[in-house]
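Run: sequence + iron/sulfur cluster -> complex structure.
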Amino acid sequence: MKKVIPIEDRRTAGRVAAPPFVGGELADTRGRAMHDLRISVTDRCNFRCVYCMPREAFGADHPFLPYSAILSFEEITRLARIFVELGVGKIRLTGGEPLVRRDLQRLVAMLAPLGAELTLTTNGSLLAKQARALKQAGLDRVTVSLDSLDDATFRAMNDADFPVAKVIEAIDVAAAEGLTPVKVNMVVKRGVNDEHIVRMAERWRGTGHIVRFIEYMDVGSTNAWRMDDVIPSAEVVQRISARWPLEPIGANYAGEVAERWRYADGSGEIGVISSVTQAFCSTCTRMRLSTEGSLFTCLFAQSGHDLKALLRGGATDEEITNEIAAVWQRRADRYSEIRTGETAKLRKVEMSYIGG
Ligand code: SAM
Ligand code: SF4
Ligand code: SF4
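>> structure
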C-alpha cells in the first residue's frame, strides 16, 4: 500500500522555499488550483487513430523526437516530485502510446513513492503483457481506449492491424491484476462508431469497469475536425437511457473531467466527457508535460514553456519550482469556452506530443 502524503504536508515538507500559494493553493488567473499532471512519455504510437495521428500526417517519414530530446525517467521523476510539492495529487502517464516506451514500469516505480495517485492511459495493445509489472511497480489504475467492439470499425478508427479481441482481453487482465476500476474510453465520431454506443455500454454494464464516451475534439491540426462529426454527450446519455434508465451522480472530486451517470438498476456507471458541447474550463486543474519537457497549460495550447533547458542547464529545484509556479499563475486558458469553427483551424500542438 502506498503512503499518501496529505497535500498540506507535501507543501510544507517539500523544498518549496517561498510557496506562491493563494488561499492555501497555487492558483491561476481564474482561481483554479493545479491538481493533475499528465506526462507524455513518448510521442510515438503503434496505432494511427484517425482523430489523433492520421497516417497522412504521421507517416513513415514523420520526424519523431530523437531519444536525446526526450526526458529521461530521472528527469521526469525530478519534475514530478516538484509538481507534487506544489500540490499535484494525481499523475497520469500518457503519450503517444506510453507502453511503447521501454521499461515504463521502472518509471512507475520511481514515481509511486511520491504519493500522488498514479494512472496510465493506453490503447491496450501492449497492456496484457505489462499489467502485472506495472501494478507491482505501484500503478494504481488504467484507462484503456476502445472505440468499438466490432473489429472492422475498431480497425477503421485506429488504422492499425490489431484485433479488438486483444484489447478486450487486456482490459480483463488489467482488472485481474487490480488496476481498477478500469476505465474504457470511447471517442465517438458521428457516422463512424456512433452506432456502437449502446453495445459498448452493454458490454461493460455490471462489470465494475466504467465506460467514458468522449466527444470528438479539435485537438492538434491534422485530424480535419468538423463540428458535424461530434455527437453531443447529451445524445449519448439519451440513447443509453432509452434502453437502461440513467440518473446523474455527483463528481468524485472538484474538477473531474467526466460527468457521471449511473444505471437506475444498479449495474454501475458511465461517464461522458463533453469538452465540445459543455466546456469544463472553469474547473480545469490540469497541467501537461510534453515528451521533450515543455509545459502546456491547456490541451489546445499553441506553445509550451521549456523546462528541459532548465533541467539540463543546471537549475536548482527552487528555480524550477518558481518557474512552474509562475507558469501556472499566469494561466488564463479557456479554449473550450471560446471554441468556434475558426479557432478549430488554428495551428495547435498535437495531442500525441503533449499527452491526452
Ligand atoms: N495512446 C493512448 C491511448 O490512446 O489511450 C494514450 C494517449 S491518447 C492521445 C489519450 C486519449 O485521447 C485517448 O483516450 C484517445 O482516445 C483520446 N483522443 C485522442 N484524440 C482525440 C480527439 N480528437 N478527440 C477526443 N479524444 C481524443
Ligand atoms: Fe495512438 Fe492513443 Fe493517439 Fe490512438 S489516440 S493514435 S492510440 S496516441
Ligand atoms: Fe482545460 Fe484547456 Fe480543456 Fe479548457 S480547453 S478544459 S482549459 S485543457
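>> summary
Residues 1-19 have pLDDT under 50 and may be disordered. Residues 45, 47-49, 52-53, 95-97, 123, 145, 158, 352 surround iron/sulfur cluster (ligand 2) (CB under 6 Å).
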